[in-house]
From TrEMBL:
This is Cysteine hydrolase. Residues 41-210 form the Isochorismatase-like domain. It comes from the Bacteria. GO terms for molecular function: hydrolase activity. The keyword Transmembrane does not apply.
Length: 224
């Protein structure tokens, strides 16, 4: 009986906590693009590829719903001379990640390609990634070295609790270790995750958002 009672109390406490968390997220402000200096800002688009947005074993309609806001944010940044990097999940057939997830986004496949809507806007640097954490890719590390003036990153795409969280927390830690003030910005209307079994998107969007915020990542409602 004790374990049943404790479980009930635990779930009741969680309900109260999540209500407060939702209220806090809903109160986040928007950010105007003009408040960012284009000379030290970059837009990071993560995994808006066919294999998540349009087809394949890891396709999600929730990810597909990001397309319009992603394109609008990309256009806004392009209009304000903010450079854009687009990461694309692109695995070798030997990738250990394929043991954790169904086969997806194999290098050279249609799934691994950036969606046409982003291609049509153009003007971005493409970086393929062979793991969930694009920040660790050699090509991106080289880009950082060549663009040391960058201290602000707008991070959008999918998935909130996996690739977005890992990239954003790594980026914040990267600047912190160098004693460099930075803004790692995640607009909540341009990130999403998927529903599958106990992987509940609404729950994990909240949890991942608060993990990022706890590490100094800046959550905002949207970029205008």
């Amino acid at each position: 009986m004790e374990s049943v009672r404790n479980r009930y109390l635990f779930l009741e406490e969680l309900k109260s906590a999540f209500e407060k968390m939702l209220d806090e997220l809903n109160s986040k402000p928007s950010l105007h693009i003009k408040d960012l200096n284009p000379k030290n800002t970059v837009l990071i688009i993560i995994d808006m590829v066919n294999g998540f947005c349009k087809e394949g074993s890891l396709y999600s309609s929730r990810i597909k719903s990001l397309i319009e806001n992603t394109v609008e944010t990309m256009k806004l940044c392009r209009e304000n001379n903010i450079p854009v990097i687009a990461f694309a999940d692109s695995h070798t057939d030997k990738s250990p990640e394929l043991k954790a997830y169904p086969p997806h986004c194999i290098k050279g496949s249609l799934e691994s390609e950036i969606i046409d809507e982003i291609k049509e806007v153009g003007g971005y640097t493409l970086i393929e990634k062979n793991s969930t954490n694009g920040f660790l890719e050699d090509k991106f590390q080289q880009w950082l070295k060549e663009n040391s003036q960058i201290t602000n990153m707008i991070v959008i795409g999918d998935c909130t609790d996996i690739c977005i969280e890992q990239f954003s927390n790594c980026a914040k830690a990267y600047y912190n270790i160098k004693d460099i003030e930075s803004r790692i910005i995640v607009p909540m209307d341009t990130v999403e995750t998927y529903d599958l079994g106990t992987h509940k998107a609404d729950l994990l969007n909240i949890v991942a958002s608060f993990i990022m915020a706890g590490n100094g990542v800046e959550l905002i409602k949207t970029i205008e």
